[in-house]
Design brief:
alpha/beta; TIM Barrel; 5-stranded parallel β-sheet; two-stranded antiparallel sheet; 7 helices; 7 strands
Length: about 220
């Protein structure tokens, strides 16, 4: 098999992203799954209340966009728009990827808001170069909650701006040690703590892992 060049890879990524559009609209699909009267307790994060205690995953590169997020929010859960690679289908992505990402991110948040009155959150990776710019967009658009993964959100987090905009924040971690570190440093730096924590392990796409002994432990 001959190695593919970058142009071929980018073309295939675009084709994959476009193929996902065939599953739209998602509203009926999500609603049909949740037609049965729920018997579970609501999910509460501060003053946010999701009657259906489901947080939709933030799948990047054009998967978790406004259609999926608004459908989940309309079904009573927390819909999430993923920021990673969100500008891939923008015409200028390969000339200025950061500008394309920020523009597409803002547009998807606004589109989701037009489709639902439910809870809309975003997923942003701490490790990406435009992390702070993406977080600024989320704050400016006053999303309900920001989930931060791929790194520990400790330094240079605009906590005051988050609180002023009433935006909740939840780091994604794989250990209690990470939680202890984040909470301890937040208390020291900001005299505050995150609103929630998401524990994620090898069953969540394998992005975060547990120890070898924990791999077979469903808890």
């Amino acid at each position: 098999m001959q190695p593919m060049n970058k142009s071929t890879i980018f073309t295939r990524l675009k084709e994959e992203a476009r193929s996902c559009l065939s599953y739209l609209p998602l509203e009926k699909t999500v609603s049909s799954i949740l037609k049965a009267k729920p018997t579970w307790p609501a999910l509460r994060i501060g003053d946010l209340v999701a009657p259906t205690p489901i947080v939709q995953g933030g799948m990047g590169v054009g998967i978790s966009l406004s259609s999926l997020a608004s459908a989940v929010a309309n079904a009573g859960g927390i819909g999430v728009i993923a920021a990673n690679g969100i500008g891939l289908l923008e015409p200028d992505y390969y000339e200025d990827g950061q500008a394309a990402n920020l523009r597409a991110f803002r547009r998807e948040i606004r589109t989701a808001r037009q489709k639902t009155k439910g809870i809309i959150g975003v997923n942003i990776m701490v490790a990406v170069n435009d992390f702070h710019q993406l977080l600024d967009v989320a704050i400016e658009e006053m999303v309900d909650i920001v989930f931060l993964g791929a790194g520990l959100p400790i330094k240079n987090i605009p906590v005051e701006a988050l609180r002023k905009a009433k935006v909740k924040l939840a780091p994604i971690v794989s250990s209690s040690r990470a939680v202890d570190m984040i909470f301890r440093m937040w208390k020291k730096l900001y005299n505050d703590v995150p609103d929630a924590v998401v524990f994620e392990g090898p069953k969540a796409g394998g992005h975060l892992g547990f120890t070898e002994e924990q791999l077979d432990d469903p808890a």
